[in-house]
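Why show two proteins at once? Because comparison is the fastest way to build intuition. When a single record is shown, students tend to memorize it. When two are placed side by side, the eye starts asking what differs. So, the first record is below.
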Amino acid sequence: MSGIKFLLDTNIVIGLLKGHPGALALAEQTNLQLSVAAVSQITRMELLGFPRLTVAEETQIRHFLSACQVCLIDEAVEAEAIRLRRTGSFKLPDAIVAATTLTRRLKLLTLDQAMLGGLQRLGYEF
């Protein structure tokens, strides 16, 4: 997965797809290019597993996902997610996304200030 710089959280992908001003501003601020971006396997599951997803939305999401890499959950991510989850600061999906970011040494792009705050309290800087 060489060349990947960013990990996109579920909320930033949804924000980009819906034209959310905060997501667009973050993408512009970081000069985001999907060719150097990835999503966690859990983000892919969250995006495609939404119960009321329309065919058009699924097509749009799949097109977006085809432009970036998917980071699979391996043993290193699992171990880090467990560690993060046990701090009590993270829901399981957020712990997996954060663990993916940390183990792959990527910059996390998220609109979730609580997740960023939880990571910063643990001493991680982004």
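Second record. Ask yourself what differs from the first in the token line.
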Amino acid sequence: MRILFVCSGNTCRSPLAAGIFNVLAERENLPVYAESCGIMAFPSRASELSIEIAAEYGADISMHTARQVNEEIMQVAKYVFCMTESQCLALREAFPKYQDKIFTVADTDIADPYGGDRSAYERTGKELYNALKTLIGKLKERMDDIDD
């Protein structure tokens, strides 16, 4: 199963989310893999602070290259998780046939740390980690139900 995380530029939040998610999913032996993209992305590396924060959670996103969301990426994802409600709305408008699989990753918007200091990235990492633990738990329950 493929999960997609989406943010604005695909250099901070969504690659961080995908990296942490993949570490958590592997620990739980879930057959799920996360990727990321951005609504307004241009090819570039993940931000240095995102790379550092991801490493603190056991994820290596140092080879990440930002990419723009497109039809193919949306089609193959089982679920799409955005960092903010406005990003969900933008994706639902741009890709209406996939609107039923587009959600926010957390109950509240995950703030963009872009341009911020290390503490801003640490807060984002912690918010994502907590939201992703919850998400992993929900996915695990769904898979347990499928196995029964």
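One difference worth noting in the second protein: Helices lie at 13-27, 48-56, 71-76, 85-94, 118-147.
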